[in-house]
Design brief:
The structure holds 2 protein chains of 2 kinds. Chain A is mostly beta strands. Helices cover 0% and strands 54% of the residues of chain A. In chain A, a hairpin with a 2-residue loop joins strand 7 and strand 8. The relative contact order of chain A is 0.33. Helix content of chain B is 0%, strand content 55%. Chain B is built from no helices and 11 strands. In chain B, strands 2, 4, 5, 9, 10 and 11 form a 6-stranded mixed β-sheet that branches. Chain B starts with a strand and ends with a strand. In chain B, 35% of the residues are buried. The chains are: A mainly beta, B mainly beta. Chains A and B meet through strand 5, strand 9 and strand 10 of A and strand 4, strand 5 and strand 9 of B.
Chain lengths: 118, 111
């Protein structure tokens, strides 16, 4: 149980275009989803927290107009990187916490999406 | 100063060795401590978790937390080549708060 999927697993786009990444909880309802970014040989940096039906909360330094997050249902959150630039190339990972998940351990990670902007 | 410090390695050991991975932290409000394993180009998977101080054992893995020293450890006994991965420590203050990750230690277990 507690499976989180991401789509696509890998995407290459041209500078200036927008890319949408989907995060789905497959066998549980996720009231909260998190989006992280990970650069090579670096740790996961939290970008934003999204709760179903409400606006996402962005971490300091993360441009909310550039990284659009939509958590429209209890099983789906999307991250759209708008007007992507090469410096946005990174590994994007989502995680999801269930409605009944009362501890930090109960945060399940997706397999990640590697974005390359050319 | 980072809230969580972790030696990035790389760490290379022979098969069967005991591996010790460590993190230090500065935020005394952290109460929940986790260790994640991340294979190359994959998402992290939860290995071990502890609440507050103490030890926890699960098979070949032992997690230790010393809140007085703000120091946590993960021990891997009888290490296997399949243990080769990056190990990330993570911490949070409360059950609903964000996770703060260490940089990750890259481990290679050589057959």
């Amino acid at each position: 149980g507690a499976v989180v999927s991401q789509h696509p697993s890998r995407v290459i786009c041209k500078s200036g275009t927008s890319v949408k990444i989907e995060c789905r909880s497959l066998d549980f309802q996720a009231t909260t989803m998190f989006w992280y970014r990970q650069f090579p040989k670096q740790s996961l940096m939290l970008m934003a927290t999204s709760n179903e039906g409400s606006k996402a909360t962005y971490e300091q330094g993360v441009e909310k107009d550039k990284f659009l997050i939509n958590h429209a249902s209890l099983t789906l959150s999307t991250l759209t990187v708008t007007s992507a630039h090469p410096e946005d190339s990174s590994f994007y990972i989502c995680s999801a916490r269930s409605a009944s998940g009362g501890t930090p351990y109960e945060q399940y990670f997706g397999p990640g999406t590697r974005l390359t902007v050319t | 100063q980072k809230e969580v410090e972790q030696d990035p390695g790389p760490l290379s050991v022979p098969e069967g060795a005991i591996v010790s991975l460590n993190c230090t932290y500065s935020n005394s409000a952290f109460q929940y401590f986790m260790w994640y394993r991340q294979y190359s180009r994959k998402g992290p998977e939860l290995l071990m978790y502890t609440y507050s101080s103490g030890n926890k054992e699960d098979g070949r893995f032992t997690a230790q937390v010393d809140k007085s020293s703000k120091y946590i450890s993960l021990f891997i006994r009888d290490s296997q080549p399949s243990d080769s991965a990056t190990y990330l420590c993570a911490m949070s203050e409360t059950s609903g708060s964000r996770l703060t990750f260490g940089e990750g230690t890259q481990l290679t277990v050589n057959p």
